[in-house]
Amino acid sequence: MAQHGHHVASSQKALMLELKSLQDEPVEGFKITLVDESDLYNWEVAIFGPPNTHYEGGYFKARIKFPIDYPYSPPSFRFLTKMWHPNIYEVFAVNIFYWGSYFDLKFY
């Protein structure tokens, strides 16, 4: 049980730091909010289509769900908006072989 408590404290700290960083220095074309203010493990992402692309003016919603042992395990990403793109899937999971605890969301 102590190990579980350590993961929760560690992941909450990592998520709070990442959320603050993304709010203080937003990534252009993205807006991050919590689905529920009391739950750091579920984020909603608003993606705005970049200018001069086929997606210009588009608005896409997605959810990021973080595991209890984040950042040691990767988050999952799911589009809420239907996407018609050959390389984008409704549910996106980071391959564990390409994930490292030193990554953060800005890396991807």
UniProtKB/TrEMBL annotation:
The chain's coiled-coil residues are: none
Check the UniProt entry and state the signal peptide residues, or none: none
Task: State the InterPro entries in the record.
Answer: Ub_conjugating_enzyme (IPR050113), UBC (IPR000608), UBQ-conjugating_enzyme/RWD (IPR016135)
* Domain of life per record: Eukaryota
Stored SMART domains: UBCc (SM00212)
Pfam hit, one: UQ_con
Q: Which residue intervals define the domain UBC core in the entry? A: 10-108
Q: What protein name applies here?
A: UBC core domain-containing protein
